[in-house]
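Extended Data, record FAD-dependent thymidylate synthase
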Amino acid sequence: MQVRLISVTNPIIEIDNSQLTPEGLIAYCARVSSPNQETPDYEKLLSYCIQNKHWSVFEMVDMTVEITTSRAISPQILRHRSFCFQEFSQRYAKAQTTEKYQPRRQDTKNRQNSLDDLDEATVKWFDEAQDKVARFAFESYEEALEKGIAKECARVLLPLGTQTRLYMKGSVRSWIHYLEVRTDPATQKEHRDIAEAVQAIFTEQFPVTSAALGWKIN
């Protein structure tokens, strides 16, 4: 798993001979009906907007991240339909490797939960099983390609653990919602790890907004 920042909206207008920050642009747009639109301070305004759920102003700025994960997790990410996505295509490009996961025990009382208390023998078995499946799948995949079978057909031989890469672009409003949902303990750990990595990037890029949300600033 890997997450990295690709882009953030870059305002081109200036106030008091200083270029607006992304959060400054949010405030500038929020003051569209105010005679004091070019007021440079915005901490109290953004906090007020969050406290009073004036979310539309947070749609004025976007952030894009690159996420490397598995085909087991990417469908969960793609469910967030307020975002725009571009994902690595196994139809056009050759798959390279898999992502390995640490197994957990199924919680019998909550289908959305898993427990990290498996014995060492089971953990070892699962680790070896992942290697075995990946090795067989990729050997068969490579053989299919060598036989001239199209990538769009050969990819059905690949496991869900196959690595993928995608770009995820959304407004600050969308990111707030995504992070509130996907950093929750109810989210699958592998997806939660991604969300927590995104949140670390978000708090660095939007410190005032993050503080108003009560999120820890790195």
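Summary. Helices lie at 22-30, 43-51, 74-78, 120-146, 151-154, 172-182, 189-205, 207-213.
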